[in-house]
Structures
1.
Amino acid sequence: VKREGRGGYRFFSEDLNIASAKRVRLEAKMRHAILHQEFQLYYQAKQDLQTGQLVGVEALIRWPTPEGMILPQEFIPLAEDTGLINPIGRWILFQALKDSVKMSQALGYPLTIAVNLSMRQFQRPGLVELVAEALQVTGIDPQLVELEITESMVVDKVDEAIATMQALRDLGVELAIDDFGTGYSSMAYLKNFPVNTLKIDQSFVRDLHGEACNTSIITAVIGLGRGLGMQVVAEGVENQQQRDLLQQVGCHLGQGYFIGYPLPLKILLEQWQHAEST
Ligand code: C2E
Ligand code: CA
Ligand code: CA
Ligand code: CA
């Protein structure tokens, strides 16, 4: 038993060594990618479920490499741990706002642009100044900018979080709670958060299928959001049935593969310019 135990321990620590070697390599690769501007932003459409109109987009970071696309779940956590999220996040913000000005011009009407913030970015002193700078440099109407944060970022130090949210709102930008319903306990604080939008997590939308059309949670969240004067967005809309149900229960906006995949700016524009002229 002892020997097995030791063996098990050795394997475990070898696994850890492999894992940390991988992290070290990925970190080096990430520094290189920052210097050489290898990241890209894809954009996913946000559609008004009642009118069908494209109302905005969400920026989603992509990292193309010769070995294939590295997805955000694979590098954002490490970027957070190493602090590299700061230069990457700055680039995302400026690039997204610049691109959205272009998109609005191309479409002939103003689109909103949503940018995801990570925990470390949200908690960093200087965020408000950074956003102010990006607004100034790009000249975008602040009301068109929506910053997405998650419940987990605001449950720890609630007062500080609210102060940051308020300072961002004072710049004129909007705030959304992402993945709503997956965090816990922030329900009680929700009414104190100066947020404009609730994004219902994909997991609740996934339950809207087949015979068991369980709309009760979705309906409750939409009611909650509306009651607090917020806009409600459903994420992860993957089929017609989900879209129709969400529309019926009064959800304002939808996002998901059925509405549009995350795409490079140019391709997204072509798709929607075509869709809206037919
Ligand atoms: P998120 O902000 O909740 O973004 C939604 C994720 O769901 C995206 O994954 C999107 O591609 C995917 N998605 C969209 N529609 C559907 C659908 O119909 N079905 C399914 N199954 N998935 C759908 P992605 O791009 O891989 O991003 C994952 C997460 O990584 C994001 O979750 C966000 O937390 C983070 N992330 C992505 N881009 C950024 C960024 O620019 N900055 C920061 N800080 N985080 C980012
Ligand atoms: Ca998001
Ligand atoms: Ca989400
Ligand atoms: Ca998320």
Note: The chain has eleven helices and ten strands.
2.
Amino acid sequence: MTELELRDLRKTYRARGRPPVDAVRGLDLGLRSGELLGLLGPSGCGKSTTLRMIAGLETVTGGDILVGGASVTDRPARRRNIGVAFENYALYPPLTVRENLAFGLRARRRADRGDRGDVERKVARIAERVGLTAVLDARPAALSSGQKQRVSLARALVREPDVLLLDEPLSHLDAAQRDTTRRELKRIQRDLGHTAILVTHDQEEALSLADRIAVMRDGVIEQLGTPYEVYDHP
Ligand code: ADP
Ligand code: ADP
């Protein structure tokens, strides 16, 4: 159970010969332990940049990121216990689904990775929950894009991360799969108590999953409230 706090978080992209881009311009945000925040806003407003900074995949220009009250801003990604499922699922092609899922667990420090049977049990349990049991021994190339997306989600969950970051995690699913996976995702997040940020363009997804919604525009948060407050009282 871990709270997440962003303090005056900033990101400016600088490339030679081009004007700097202020992608994130002072974000202040606190998530309670176990809270799921929906992050919405037009394309280019800074949502992905924000998630990448929290995950440690992008350096921070200014500000601080705290997980469970401790700053992780200067820690590399592997030393933050943050699970990410991004739209462009980066699965390892030579590994089976089972190996892709176990990889995250094995990559952890020896001390807390548990025994082999433990890894297998965790992988089997999460595969069952997201409907991947039948394809555990397949390789990514043999999967549909919907299945790949579910592997990406399962890989984020299997590590039991303190914080879960989801960037359009259901975008490649068809309507029926999206419905089931959304319900299962909510159940898992609630059961396991993940503190989570979900980026989505899907208003129904945000309404059904999020405890609160933040609307970003131009690198800042423009609106913050319950789904009811944001959608009914703009
Ligand atoms: P969103 O996820 O809301 O669509 P992004 O975080 O991807 O927004 O982008 C925010 C702004 O930062 C945009 O103006 C985008 O063009 C710019 N940007 C994103 N990534 C880079 C990058 N690697 N280099 C330069 N500019 C970038
Ligand atoms: P699902 O039904 O689970 O959404 P599909 O297999 O129907 O997945 O894929 C949706 C679309 O994405 C199809 O046009 C398919 O050809 C394409 N697609 C699936 N996997 C890949 C991939 N690895 N690279 C490029 N396109 C893909």
Note: The longest helix spans residues 175-192.
